[in-house]
Queue: 2 jobs
Job 1
Amino acid sequence: MASTSDFRSGMVIKYNNELWTIVEFQHVNPGNWRAFVRVKMKNIKSGKVLENRFRAGESIESIRVERKTFQYLYRDGADYAVMDNETYEQMTISSDLMAGGEKYLKENINIDLLFNGTEIIAIELPIFAILRVTMTEPGLKGDTVSNTLKPATLETGATVMVPLFVNENDLLKIDTRTGYYVERVKE
């Protein structure tokens, strides 16, 4: 068991029978009152963010999480085939662990798997994905000034809103956390 004095960003704790990652924390000592720790934490499974207060010195169950890098190979029905970059061992991952990130998966991309013992508890995609536009309305010359957006379909099947100057076959940098267009990438 750990206490609130052991908190650090990125630490995984068990709270209300769910696994949470500590995003940020602050020790507060309000004068005559008891000290407490204000914590912002993110649910590993659902991604929900929660702010909570813990008494200073309160015991918390800390979870040891191992992070390993795997290479995404291909989709196998409803599951995903990945390969360990160190041992070259292949395994399949259930689609419910992807939590919406599968629309940014491209073959041979590296992803991180978080293990609690031998159980996979979460999948972390790279923050940015470089994907090609397969279908969008053609852009017009001079459309770089306005903030107007149009839908574009990417090579993985995902649809994102992009500026009017983006054309088919352009490479785009997409934020996998939000699904937003970041910038156009040169080849």
Note: The longest strand covers residues 18-28.
Job 2
Amino acid sequence: MNRRIFAALSVVLVTASVAVTAPAAFAAAAKSAPSVLVVGATGGTGKEVVRQALESGYRVRALVRDADKARAQLGSDVEFVVGDVRTGAGIESAVRGVDFVVSALGSNVRNDPTNTPERVDYGGVRDLVNAAAKAKVKHFVLVSSMGVTHDDHPLNKMFGNILVWKRKGEEAVRASGVPYTIVRPGGLLDAPGGKADIRAFQGDDLKNNGRIPRADVAAVCLNALGNARAAGKTFEIVSGTEGARVDWNGLFAGLKADAR
């Protein structure tokens, strides 16, 4: 769908008791585009997912704690559902009726001591994917992290076992029954994407450690949505050869499905 159509749409703000819908003509036009819920949409990677999803013609919904602040960051082309994954508020409303979900959740106790890895990286992901299963979401993409299988990783000591809880979040996704893809990026860069191809591998071998722009992580997530070659797979990603282009189907097809 042309982005101009989205620019003309009214923002939909859904709370526990109030829903403001777009004019019928615009709502009908938008139904032809696939819809994606982005959770963690105001974080560094989530913002990139939202931006690229809009550019690709998706109808984008975001689960946020403060709609006004989110709108200032993400623009008026996004539908906002007010909620909080730490309590489960708004999750069922957020997943209802969407085709896809991308979770870019990430805890940050430095900004808020209640944003613990257990509550966000595990509990939030678990509740989100279970709600997605009930809503019959077609595909759930989780942004996790390289190193989650290494309990002695320094990040666990620094950030309250963050990688342990992220691994538990992954396990909840695999157990949910929802078609899924789990993406484990290396070190995240706030840099332009598309400058190199993407190297994907499996096994969480830290000898393959590297870095990757958040924009390229977002591109992996969006290209995985609805792609059967990406379904049921968990893999790590880092930047590859500079100047090379990504063969998305080849990237996903070359990966093994998770063991059942």
Note: The CA atoms of residues 187 and 211 lie 4 Å apart.
